Amino acid sequence: MRCEGWRKNGSFMTFGPVQWVQCPNDATVILTVVQDGETTDQPACNECWQEAIERSVVITQTRPMTEDKG
Asked: In 3-state terms, what secondary structure has residue 68?
């Protein structure tokens, strides 16, 4: 499963158009996060998980990704 992290590339300082790009990494954890009053589960890679912590995103639960053995 792919990470659901998104990053903004470009700005008026770089004179390029603003473009949102999804993280290309595979998810390693499922984060339960609270944003704008909504609680959602988001797959995340380790890099995006660390970025969420650094940006003070409210993370209420983490669960490791597991492969379905069914």
From this structure: coil
Give pLDDT tens digits for 3-26. Answer: 999 988 777 666 677 888 999 999
Q: Which residue has the tokens 């639960």?
A: 61
- Residue 70 domain flag: no
Give me the count of residues in the chain.
70
pTM confidence score: 0.79
Task: Tell me if 45 is assigned to some domain.
Answer: yes
The DSSP call for residue 49 is H
Residue 59 structural domain: 6-64
In total, how many domains does the chain have? 1
